[in-house]
Design a protein that fits this description.
Elements: H1 6-12, E1 21-24, H2 29-42, E2 49-55, H3 62-75, E3 80-84, H4 95-108, E4 116-118, H5 123-135, H6 140-143, E5 149-152, E6 155-158, H7 166-175, H8 192-207, H9 211-239, E7 247-249, H10 250-253, H11 258-271, H12 279-290, E8 299-302, E9 305-310, E10 313-318, E11 329-331, E12 337-339, E13 343-351, E14 355-356, E15 364-367, E16 374-375, E17 384-385, H13 386-393, H14 397-400, E18 405-408, E19 411-415, E20 419-420, E21 431-439
Parallel strand pairs: 1-2, 1-4, 2-3, 4-6
Antiparallel strand pairs: 5-6, 7-10, 8-9, 9-10, 11-15, 12-13, 13-21, 14-21, 15-18, 16-17, 18-19, 19-20
Helix pairs in contact: 1-2, 2-7, 5-8, 5-9, 9-11
Length: 442
């Protein structure tokens, strides 16, 4: 890797982007160097970029930092945008975690298709992240630390300074007499990252001068290993009958060696956007759900995730919010209705199927299963117990008392996602209404 310069940065950036570079600009050394280099590049390349500053409101100097950032952008004729957020941590969450989440939410809010968000993370921070992940006992994905590029909303996030040390960036800044702000909290060693930065990494570098570069190389190796493990997980999940995003065939999953089971489950949960369990929680899924008796009602829960089984399949879903199965919701089908713990119910117009469109505009009740309901689905010659229809359709037990049932008086017209009842169906070639239900818990 050559010494840091605007030309070195130009070789790293993707010049083929269709959108715009958006620089996360805190005013500190690292983002100041990146801003300055982008300004120089803009003079010689067809480069479109702007600066984004997030004002967290936590530090007494935050107003002064924001003013500094605005002034620097005005001086260099760079479009500047500021976001003010309240980063006061919620109970159980650290100030750093809260600030980070709000910062990325703010940055994400302005991204457009094809845009690239640039952050100024450098080689030293990559080494710190890897060591912190080691102390937490993280697996391969955690040890891959920060990737150079990742998907971010409708665009990309890039970290073009990962190959450069903080010393190189500081040398560049001093040579060009750049001005930046210093956050005094970065000296507070009660924070793990600051302790790692000021006490641990210097000792490692004193003993092993190439420690920071070597740690970055290790993170790169872990990233490659993680890619291979993900590819193996995809193959194993295909073997396990992944016919939809939410369930796996338990019998086939149990045919895999235990390490591959754990790898497949971690990937499956990540791919679904769910929180990945700790090692002990994952072991509980394997022992208490996968290997429980076939008729056992098993559920393992952690951080907003429920893992359950039904009819030989493993399900993973967001934890369900509270729901009153005795409630009644009035609905005339003229607009969507949102029901807490259930989801969003709407109708779509069609022909020759669904409910008769003549029902539109009348007032109906949405209720939920109480037990003992009997209905006659279209094309069935007689009435059936709703319980048996749920079983026949493979509807998991935890979804049954949250499935919307459309009533007219005491008559059932339809069960969302399951069936239309006689005699409320649309006739052949007649206007019809399809009930569209988007559950909160799928």
């Amino acid at each position: 890797m050559p010494r840091f310069s605007p030309n070195a940065l130009a070789e790293i950036l993707n010049q083929d982007i269709a959108g715009h570079y958006r620089l996360a600009y805190s005013g500190g050394l690292d983002s100041t160097v990146l801003l300055h280099a982008m300004v120089e590049l803009q003079a010689s390349l067809p480069l479109s970029f702007s600066a984004l500053h997030v004002h967290h409101g936590l530090n007494p100097e935050a107003d002064a930092w924001a003013s500094h950032c605005r002034h620097e952008c005005e001086r260099h004729n760079v479009t500047y945008q500021q976001f003010n957020v309240d980063a006061t941590p919620v109970k159980g969450q650290s100030p750093e975690e809260t600030a980070r989440e709000l910062r990325y939410e703010a940055l994400a809010s302005v991204m457009q298709a094809g845009d690239v968000l640039l952050t100024a993370h450098h080689q030293d921070e990559q080494a710190e992240t890897l060591l912190l992940q080691l102390m937490r006992g993280c697996g391969v994905p955690g040890l891959a630390a920060m990737p150079f590029e990742t998907d971010f909303t409708c665009g990309k996030l890039q970290r073009p300074l990962l190959g450069f040390s903080r010393a190189e960036l500081e040398s560049y800044a001093n040579e060009r007499q750049l001005c930046w702000v210093e956050d005094g909290s970065n000296l507070d060693k009660s924070y793990d990252r600051n302790f790692m930065r000021h006490d641990i990494l210097p000792a490692l570098v004193e003993r092993w001068p190439a420690a920071i570069a070597n740690l970055q190389r290790t993170a790169s190796h872990m990233s490659e290993a993680g890619t291979l493990l993900d590819e193996l997980a995809i193959e194993d999940l295909a073997h396990c009958g992944l016919d939809n995003a939410s369930s796996l065939e338990i019998g086939r999953l149990k045919q895999l060696p235990k390490p591959r089971v754990r790898n497949a489950l971690r990937y499956w949960l990540r791919a679904r956007g769910l929180n990945v369990p700790s090692q002990s929680q994952l072991q509980q899924v394997i022992s208490d759900v996968l290997y429980s008796s076939p008729d056992a009602v098993a559920c393992v829960h952690w951080q907003g995730v429920d893992v359950r089984k039904y009819q030989g399949r493993l399900y993973a879903l967001s934890s369900m919010s509270s729901h009153d199965s005795h409630q009644t919701v009035n609905w005339d089908m003229s607009k969507p209705v949102q029901i807490n713990g259930v989801g969003r119910l709407d109708v779509r117009q069609t022909r020759g199927e669904g409910l008769s469109a003549s029902l539109m505009g009348q007032c109906y009740d949405i209720r939920f299963r109480q037990g003992g309901e009997r209905v006659q689905p279209v094309n069935r010659g007689h009435h059936h117990e709703l319980k048996k229809l749920f079983q026949e359709a493979g509807v998991p037990p935890w979804e049954r008392d949250r499935t919307p049932i459309l009533y007219k008086g005491d008559e059932i017209l339809a069960i969302a996602g399951l069936c239309i009842c006689e005699p409320y169906q649309a006739g052949k070639d007649q206007p019809g209404l399809i009930l569209e239900w988007n559950p909160d818990f799928s």
